[in-house]
Known about the structure:
By secondary structure, the protein is mostly helical. It has helices at residues 13-32, 35-51, 53-56, 62-75, 80-83, 104-116, 121-132, 137-144, 148-164. 62% of the residues lie in helices and 0% in strands. Helix 1 packs antiparallel against helix 2, helix 1 packs across helix 7 (121-132) and helix 2 packs across helix 4 (62-75).
Amino acid sequence: MRTPAGRTPPPSFEAFVRDHGPELVAFARRLTLDHHRAEDIVQDVLARVGMRWSRVAGSNDVRAYVFKAVLNDFLSWRRRRSSRERATADPAAGRETAAPGVEDIVLLRDELHTALAVLSPVQRAVVVLRYHQDLPDTEIARLIRCREVTVRSHAHRALAVLRRADVPIIEGSRP
């Protein structure tokens, strides 16, 4: 159904959450490295967005708007204290007792998760946005409100940390 102006009407809030909710949680989980914290961030963002859905639904790209809100909430000063919390158990301790037949990719993902945990939130956001979301540096700079050179600096330092942690890094198509 089209509106008189020829535009497709925006989806309902419920349809948006149904279509993009799992994707938002996956994005937040990659940023936070904690499934529960990711769900909290997405829930907080969706609660705020839902309250003003009539205005948000009128934006050019609702999906991008909500993803940006998730990123901003992750980088927010209000959550900085909780982002410093670290589990006391050593995740590497259980690797020797892993069941036979565990795929190498699962072990590699665990090593990468452990290495990403040592990055600052901004460095982690740059790595996730650049290598997982495949965004160009100009878009990342706009999202985290800094200059492109700062994005490249964060990426360079993050990759150096990951290399020092001896995590195999598969470089993307970026120079």
